[in-house]
Design a protein that fits this description.
Elements lengths: L9 H4 L2 H13 L10 E5 L7 E6 L11 H4 L6 H11 L2 E5 L19 E6 L32 H6 L5 E5 L9 E4 L6 H9 L3 E4 L4 E7 L5 E3 L3 E4 L4 E7 L4 E8 L2 E4 L8 E7 L7 E10 L4 E4 L2 E5 L1
Parallel strand pairs: 3-4, 4-5, 10-17
Antiparallel strand pairs: 1-2, 2-3, 6-7, 7-16, 8-9, 8-11, 11-14, 12-13, 12-15, 15-16, 15-17
Length: about 300
């Protein structure tokens, strides 16, 4: 584990001493070039605004309190949270999506809310209703309140939101929720900037998932990128699992379009060229399933074909 955040609810109820003590701990546990904790907290607002994990690359930003109107959904969180994040160089991520702590995706700012919690070890996956390890109307876990299917990830993508993915632990779920960040260096500013660029993926185990798009001229785009390209774009994935890989799905615009053979091994590579993309912008991402039920999801790439 290279980075992490202690994300208590409003850092212990917006109490200054709780905030100060936790901020101090981030520096106490900093191990240069080994472990780089980030600054942040969980801002806890009821559905339909939703809980958000707040992230900063620097110390000293107090929590943003939640008032009653926001908690009742009479005021959108974005109108309050986004100016606060912009002023303080922060980002945020929705948490516990399809639950009473989740959201109906009423607002989003791609520069300030670049990632979302697709899986949480203490609860479930939030890809789409009835998806792998996800809730459904007949399988509600009751861990985080009511079942709110409007919060599933696919609904956000259908609205045109540009959201990468990560997986977070909560309570007793450490080491079964992996927020994987592709970053050029292990400094706080580089890690948060990479999160802002959606260069991240979600996994339930230490699965390696490398997904990129390569243009005919050799230009490559990492997961999370938004770009324009000509036809002939190669969608390429390299996967190293922790158990036998049983299924890989390439998903375009919320539908599976290709499932390469896995051959009963832990290592799979594939390339795919979409010969019939939809008009406008297409988004693609990869989902990996293992024999032991562990999963990984890449962040999407968003492609507008010339």
């Amino acid at each position: 584990m290279d980075t992490g955040i202690v994300a208590d609810h409003n850092m212990g109820g917006d109490v200054e001493y709780n905030w100060w003590r936790t901020e101090k701990s981030y520096d106490i546990f900093l191990i240069p070039n080994r472990y780089t904790p980030l600054f942040g907290y969980e801002r806890s607002v009821n559905y339909p605004n939703g809980h958000r994990n707040i992230v900063f690359d620097h110390r000293g930003v107090r929590t943003l309190p939640v008032d009653a109107a926001e908690n009742r959904g009479q005021v959108n969180s974005g109108a309050l949270v986004y100016p606060y994040l912009r002023q303080n160089r922060g980002i945020c991520m929705e948490h516990s999506l399809a639950t009473g702590q989740g959201t109906d995706w009423r607002d989003n700012d791609p520069d300030l809310e670049p990632l979302v919690e697709l899986y949480q070890g203490y609860h479930a996956a939030y890809e789409y209703e009835g998806g792998p390890r996800a809730e459904s109307a007949n399988n509600h876990l009751l861990v985080h309140g009511s079942y709110e299917p409007a919060g599933f990830f696919w609904n956000a993508l259908s609205k045109g939101y540009k959201l990468g993915v990560q997986a977070s632990s909560d309570h007793i779920s450490t080491h079964c929720s992996y927020a994987m960040i592709y970053t050029p260096a292990a400094t706080r500013s580089d890690i948060v900037d990479s999160m802002r660029r959606r260069h991240a993926y979600a996994a339930t185990d230490n699965i390696i998932l490398d997904f990129e798009a390569v243009e005919p001229n050799g230009a490559s785009h990492l997961m999370g990128d938004i770009f324009t390209a000509g036809r002939g774009l190669k969608l390429r994935a390299r996967i190293h699992g922790t158990d036998v890989i049983t299924r890989i799905d390439l998903i375009r615009n919320n539908a599976v379009i290709y499932s390469p053979a896995t051959s009963g091994t832990k290592d799979v590579e594939f390339e795919y060229v979409d010969m019939s993309p939809a008009a406008g912008t297409n988004w693609y991402y990869v989902r990996v399933a293992q024999m032991d039920r562990n999963l990984a999801w890449s962040s999407p790439v968003w492609v507008t074909y010339r």
